[in-house]
Every structure is written in structure tokens, then in C-alpha cells.
Amino acid sequence: MPKENRKRGKKHKKTQDPSQPSGDPIHENQNSEHHDRPSWIVSAQEPEDAHPEAPFGYVDPDVKAYFRTVDDQIRTWQQQKPYEEEDHTADLDPNEARRIFLVAALSEMSGKEKQLATDPDCSVVLERMAYSMDDFVRRVLLDSLSGSYEALIKHRFASHVCQTLFTVSVDTISRETKGIYPSVADSDDKGELRTLTCLILDICEELAPVFTSLLMDPFASHVLRALLLLLSPSSSTMSHKALSNMRSKKSSAWKARQGTMKSVFANNDVQHHVNSTRSVPKEFHDAAVKFVSILKSELDDNEVRALAGNKVASPLLQLILEVEADLGASSLSGSLMDRVLVGIITLCHENPDEQPEASDYLVTLLRDPTASHLLETMVSRCPDPAFTILWSTYFRGKLARLATHPVANFVVAKAAERLNPAQLKAALEELESAWNKVIGSARTGVLRAMIDRACVIRVHEKDICQAVCNAFELFEPKDRSRLVPCVLVLKPLRVTGFLLHNDIKLMDISKECTEAAFTKRTSEDTQQHSKGDNMDNSKVQGALILQSLLRLNEPHCMVVTESITSLTTEDLISLSQSPISSRVIDVLFESETVPFKVKRTLIMSLIGHYHTLVDDRIGSRVGDRCWAFADPYLREKIARSLLTHEQFLAASYFGKFFARNINLYLLQRRPDEWRELQSQRKSGSGSITAIHPAASMTPQKPNSEDAEVSPSSKKSKKRRSRPEDEIDAVFNSSLGAKVKRTAVNVTSSSDKSIVEKSVDQGLQDVLGAIRAAPSDDSGRGKRQKR
């Protein structure tokens, strides 16, 4: 015993009270048996209860260390860019090397799948490996987890593994629906491996009895969303909003720190965008219907409504309502949507002319940050008669307050996407006096939604333009030239005009004062006021409004195009070089309602300034779009205006790609050939496409025939001099002959003629340059004398 734990005084042995029992007879028997046995026999300990963090046991430290190296290697391969070359001198195919590495990791994983899935470090490795598994391996992994999915999807780490497996199983199920199955090698294992379709259906059967209890689980709800998306992949359920609800914000941020997760095999795009029109087995639709019916039968009306305000269950309830609407069951009385809408659908069937009273429950959903997302789903997917009652009861007459509310404005914007012409006209009249408050609060979603709705139904476009002008206080026709600067910064003309007046006043002061005194006097005023009218302060909301206005019909979209053409060249270049406002120029070229003349005028207004425009990361992209839209005549005018700035473009980091695209050298030497080339490119493109600058930078991988020669020239000479034996013949037939990269193998007669023509043409260019050089007799005489 340690010295500090000892007690002072005499030691007294405890005497046992004869009235008390001697102890547990079971333990006494065990002790007596223990004394009878030899000393080297130790009784086995009773098994302890499984730890909730590791319900299937802990992973061995050596195995965990091995999978940590596997994770590092796979992450390196996944973050590697496709054009990066690894090791061309190796004889082994990189895909084959990675396949061998993955097979070794899978062999080590066999029998430990559940332990690895519940481990905080190894679960990420399983997620990373799932993207590189083939169809057969995915079936084996899902089959090894069968019977434990209820515990796995409620686990903190294993739930993400199950979610990833359901996500990557989309392509496998699509192939199995078409009858494409992987070839299975013969093995000594007995039993039949189920297809992935059967495995998913068995998982649904396993989770059906506990489906309602999993709705509120913080880990299982995300897995159920992935499972429902797998069962019912419609266009609505595969929307961006539904996919964004697949993970929580904390989980999404954590996964983003793990790096890119994709297949490690080259030229094998395993991670595709999910196609909403892909075919699924009929049994999947039946499984989705079963989940909806379970929810309707086991939960009453109040319990379903209580799920709307729960942060965990509300996103899953949104997805279930989407599935119910896709199945055509939301328009029936007693459906889940009818329960959440407080019986509005039932009222439409029984008494469609009756106007119900506003429910406090739906009014609360309008302003709740969590439940408002559910109301957006119901507003967009409910039947038309139910939407009419919903709009007239909860929106009409309250738009002025709801449009400026920080939460309710999103629901109003979603409802505006379904308005008919009469409802849109009434809404514009109601919001006529509230647009200035909408712009002042920078909540422009309702205004943009109404512009988009007018573009769809092609009515009340003039009223929409007038509403936008009134919102920014552009009451006079002459003031509408300031529409684009006002909308981009989301400030009315009164504010932007005041800022412009201050700029002019500062310019007058600069004439009176010296330059140094002016800089010192107006530095603070310039920082505060001159930024108001700068394109760098553009807001995303303002740029989206301008893009929506450009999609209106021709008489009404001209209010934006006229404002753009009235800008000075410096302002237009500043607008084109902003990452936010440059999207307005993109939509101007893409919109079918904008006249061709306006687009041509915009391109011609930049002639003489393209070198300044493309000397920027964003401006170079706009310059490529202008070049792609221009006809051969405009292209020649643009190219000839850049001849004097050729050196400037060559020195520019972004401008050199634009110069390489227009090919100024060919225009100077052979103009006719350049014009013919531009005509062919214009006729072959057919549509406006932006040319990516990085495309010309992508290094080309050499062919097997263009491999580098050995650095030792002596060895190569010896190899060429000695006779070819059987081993050399085998290697040459499999790998091919190795020649220098600079060597060009001309096989066909057409290729020979092309090469000869290019050589002759290059020689003629050199001779022509020599003839055109000025003659200097004095210099010639000095050279001869020297």
C-alpha cells in the first residue's frame, strides 16, 4: 500500500457478527470450487453489456492503423486532378494498381464491416471506398450489414455510412433494372448473393416496423431521406432543395473537410448527377407507398402537425409529402397534406364554395424558421383548388406585411410561382405602395418571383416593369437610364443621385485645391460616398432582378438594355469584370427576347477596349462570350483593333488565352485563311458557348508510340544494334516501340500532304519576310569589309 494511504494506529481485524449470514452461497460455492481446482485455471468473466458507441465491438488498433493508411492513399487519389500524370515509366496500369490496392483493403475488411462502420475513424474510410466499389462489392457490403440496419442507422457514425451506400447505389440499381448484372466468379462460399434491388427491399421490410420511431431520431432521419430518394427518384424529390436537406449543416461542413469523394479509377465517372427520369423497379414504388401508409395509420392528425416544427422530422416530412404528391395521393381526403393543411383538401371535395377561417397553426407556420420550409413544399405541391383557398385565406390582403417579413417572404415568393393572371394583377396592385419597403429591406424574392411568373404566363409585363421603376423611384423616362446602377446596388435613385452629386462636387473641389490637399481633404468622403455607385458593390439580389427582366418580351426588356448601352465604357467594363454583375451580360446574350441588334451594338461598343476587358479573370470570360456570339465580320474588327495591343495581351495572365483564341498571328500573315477559319468555326459552333481558358492549358498525354526514349544514348544504340530475341518481341508487341516525343509518325498520304503543305507555307513566310526587310547598303558594305 502506498505510504500516503496508510492510517496511523493499531490494526484491528473485523469480527463477523454471528447473527448475520456468512454471505452469498453462490459465491461461496464458486470460491470452494476455485480452491479445489488447480491454480492455473481461471474462471471466465461474465460478458459485459455492449457499449452504445460500439454496439458490435471495438476495432483492433492494428487494423485501425492499416485503414488509416488506406484513407490517406485513397484521399490522395481522389484529390488528384485528371490531367496530372503519375508515372508513365511504370509498366502497370494505374487503374490496375488501384484495383489491387482496393481488393487488399476489402479483404482486410471482410468480417469486420459492422465494427468498422461504427468506428469514428474507420467509418470515413468506408464512405470513401464506397465510391470506388463495383456493383458486386456493394452487394456484398450491404448483405454483410443485413439484420442490423436499425442499430446502424441510429448510430452516430454508421448512419453516414448507410446514407452514402444508399446514395451510390443509384447507378447499380439502374443497371439492374436494365438487366445488367456483374459477372460473379466461382467460389467455395455457399449461398446465393441477393441483388441490390432485393437488398434494398429487405432493408425497407426491416425498417418498416420502427419507421415512425425513427422520424425523430437525429441520425436515422437523414438515412431515411436517402432511402426515400432511392425509392422515388422523381423530378420534384431530386430538386436542389431536397438534396440540400440530405445532411445537416454540421454534417455537411464536416464532410467538406474530408475532401472530394469520388471514384479513384481514371475514366470511370462513378459519381454521376442523379437522373430524375431513371427507371426504378415497380417494387420500389410499392415500398414508398407502404412508408406513407404506415405514417398515416400510426400517427393521428395532431402528431403529424407536430412534426412540422421539429428540426429533425420536418425535412423528412417534406420529402414524404413530395413522394405522396408524386404518387397522386395528396389530393385525397385524409392524406398527409390534408392533415397538415388543416382539412383544406377535404373542404374542396365537400364544399368548394365555402371560405374557411384562417387557422392559427398555418399562420404560425408562415413565420416559423423551421416549419416555413414545409409550408413552401405544400404551397408548391398542393392541388389547384386547395391553393386557391390557401392564397385567398392566408396571403391576399396581407402581402405588404408578409413580403417584408424575414421568414414569410420566402413562402410568398414560392406561392407567387403559381399565380394566375387575375391573382398576379391583384397582387401587383396590393404591393404598389410597399415596393420601396421591399427594396429597403433587401428582401427582393417576392419581386423577382412575380417577374418570373410574368415571363412564364406572358401577361402584365408592362405592370411589372412599372413596379420595378417605382420601387427604385425612377418615375421619369429620362431617369430609367440609371436603372442598372440602381438595381445592382439595391438603392433608389434618390440615394444614388445623392452619391453621384457628391462625386461631382468632389471633382469641383479638386480643381480648386492642390492634388495633395484634395487627397487629404476628401479621402474619408470618397471612401463613404463614392462606393455607392460602384459596380464592385453589386448585390446578388439586384443582379437576379435584372436577369429576370431581360427574359421579358422585347418591348419590356428594352428598359434594361437601354440602361446598359447608356453606360460609359469604363462603367461597362467594370460591370463586365464583376463576378456578380457580369451574369447580367451573360443573360443578355442568352435571352431569346433581347433583339439581335442590341447584342451587336454591345459588342461594337467595346471595340478598342477588349484588351482592358480581357485582362481580368471575369472579364476574359465575358470577352470569350462576345467573341463566340460575333459574326466573322465583327470578329475581324475586334481582332484588328487588338493588333496594336498584341504585346499587352501576351504579357497578361488572362488576356493571353483570349489572344490565343483569336489567332492574331494568322490574321497578320494570311488574312484570307483566317477569315475562312472563323467562318468554319462560326458555322460549326451553332450556339453561344463560352470558351474555357483552361482548356487550352490542358497538357496532352503522349501516346504509347510517343513515349520518351531512355536517357542513356549508349544503351539505346546497343539495343538497336543487337538482334531482337524472343523477350524483346514479347515486350514490343505488348508495350509498343518507344520513340521520342518530338517524332511525328505520318502514316497516311493525306497527313503527308498536310505536313508538306505546312512546311512549304512556313518557308514561303520566311522568304517573304526576308524580301520585305529594308535594305541597308552601308551596313552591307561594313559587313563585307569586316
Automatic annotation (TrEMBL):
- The biased composition feature labelled Basic and acidic residues covers 25-38
The source's superkingdom equals: Eukaryota
Statement: the UniProt record of this protein carries the keyword Cell inner membrane:
no
- Gene Ontology, cellular component aspect: 90S preribosome; nucleolus; preribosome, small subunit precursor
**Assigned keywords, A-Z:** Repeat
Q: Which SUPFAM superfamilies match?
A: ARM repeat
> Which portions of the sequence form the region Disordered?
1-58, 677-732
Which terms does the record give in the GO molecular function aspect? RNA binding
Q: Which stretches are tagged as biased composition: Basic residues? A: 1-14
Swiss-Prot/TrEMBL GO biological process terms: endonucleolytic cleavage in 5'-ETS of tricistronic rRNA transcript (SSU-rRNA, 5.8S rRNA, LSU-rRNA); endonucleolytic cleavage in ITS1 to separate SSU-rRNA from 5.8S rRNA and LSU-rRNA from tricistronic rRNA transcript (SSU-rRNA, 5.8S rRNA, LSU-rRNA); endonucleolytic cleavage to generate mature 5'-end of SSU-rRNA from (SSU-rRNA, 5.8S rRNA, LSU-rRNA); ribosomal small subunit export from nucleus
**Pfam families linked:** PUF_NOP9
Q: What is this protein called?
A: Nucleolar protein 9
Organism per entry: Rhizopogon vesiculosus
